[in-house]
Write a structure and sequence with these properties.
The chain has six helices and two strands, in the order αββααααα. The protein has helices at about 5-25, 40-65, 70-95, 100-120, 130-150, 160-185; strands at about 30-35, 35-40. A two-stranded antiparallel ribbon has the order 1-2. The radius of gyration is 18 Å and the shape is globular. It is mainly alpha-helical. The protein has a single domain, classed as CDP-alcohol phosphotransferase transmembrane (TM) domain (Four Helix Bundle (Hemerythrin (Met), subunit A), Up-down Bundle), CATH 1.20.120. The longest helix has 26 residues, at about 40-65. Pathway: Phospholipid metabolism; phosphatidylglycerol biosynthesis; phosphatidylglycerol from CDP-diacylglycerol: step 1/2; Lipid metabolism.
């Protein structure tokens, strides 16, 4: 396993740590962060999420720089993104910080695209994430981070940035899903 793939796998291994910190009945007290009051464990969980999300950029950078782009990496990278984002969104619903219907739309798109990827893989085709997919992923990461940090800094100016970011993430999630299916509709054409 090459370095970029190891970095991707590290993202997957950070998910259980994130879940334990966010969901275990721990009380580390409250804190203020850039004008937002939040439990300390939410701040720590947000940092773990942000570190895990940052590995998405790092693994891609090294895969391209060292010419280590592999089919395993093309498979693992979007899978790691989907696992991390889905886990974080479900935690946000559990905490009452994200509406479940938006999370259902986002996760449903992820399942649909994963299913399409499996169909294409069955035909011997591994498709790397496109530009819209990358924008979608970063929009989701920004929204989740803002929600985990209780809209810090924007709370000071009374701007619901986290909510707006979640709507933007949902928009790019739907658009990139539609685009993915549009460009891969050949998977549904019966060639027999």
């Amino acid at each position: 396993m090459n370095l970029p793939n190891k970095i991707t796998v590290s993202r997957i291994f950070l998910i259980p740590l994130f879940l334990i910190i966010m969901l275990a009945p721990l009380n580390w007290g409250e804190m203020m962060f850039l004008g937002a009051e939040m439990p300390v464990k939410h701040f720590v969980g947000a940092l773990i999420f942000i570190i895990a999300a940052t590995t998405d950029w790092i693994d891609g950078y090294y895969a391209r720089k060292l010419d280590l782009v592999t089919n395993l990496g093309k498979f693992l990278d979007p899978l790691a993104d989907k696992l991390l984002v889905s886990a974080a969104l479900i935690v946000l619903v559990e905490m009452g910080l994200a509406p479940s219907w938006i999370v259902i739309i986002i996760i449903s798109r992820e399942f649909a695209v994963t299913g399409l990827r499996l169909v294409l893989a069955g035909e011997g085709e591994v498709v790397a994430a496109g530009q819209l997919g990358k924008i979608k992923t970063w929009a989701q990461i920004i929204a989740i981070s803002a929600l985990l940090l209780h809209n810090a800094i924007f709370e000071l100016i009374n701007l619901p940035f986290a909510t707006i970011a979640l709507w933007v993430a949902m928009f790019f999630t739907i658009w990139s899903g539609w685009d993915y299916f549009k460009h891969n509709k050949k998977a549904f054409v019966n060639s027999k």
